[in-house]
Sequence to fold (256 residues):
Amino acid sequence: MTKRMPEIVAKNMMMPFYIPLFSTNFPYVLLWVPKNGCTIVNKWFMYHIGAAGDLSQLNVEMTHNYREFVLRKRSGYDVELKEELLNGEKPIVKIVRNPYRRAVSSFYHALSGDWLIKQLGSTVLEGMSFTSYLLKLKSFGESIHELDKHIAPQYTIGEEQTPIHYVRLENLQHELMDLERIAGLKASPMNEIARSSHHFSSRMKLEGDYANRVISFVYDEDLPTVNSLLNEETKALVEEIFAVDLHFYGYKLGEY
Fold:
């Protein structure tokens, strides 16, 4: 039997903390990475496999704990998932995001906890400017793919070697509803599933030129908007660092 992807690609996709979502009772294999609507996607998956319970009570921590401590820990999960990736027929779906906007979201996530920002040579207290953040990412070169997926490119090495249906975060709710319709799934309560506090948009109020301003989550309550962080220099850096995402997922240069 011809495998639908090389084994090394399946291995690359089966990242321990960001493992694909798979169930024998679900018609798709979902590839996801952080900062791409991951909480919504995980909740949507849980709803359709009957694991969501009361959606109004399903918070971010509960959603990710289910994947980490229930789904992944099920006996045979990794073996069945690998077999499906290599030889199965379920369509593989990956959620992707505009690289410019994702870079800003990833920057804020890095600022919010020492576990990431210390890898970039700073602390939550000291903070960092968006320009400095991008220059630090650029300094990793090809090894950037080894960084945590909150800040690394969305692209998984080798994914172009297998058919994948890409769903854009910018149109996520409508595209998930299309997937439901295609597979004959029950329509999910999308407004409830899409409700999430796991983002920074409500704090992004500052307008102006903030690309080179040091931002600290300890001292700064309000945050710059996407436009306030993207100038000619930072746009060029995003386009260089995340060129593979722009290319593979079909986003146009300069559009965000």
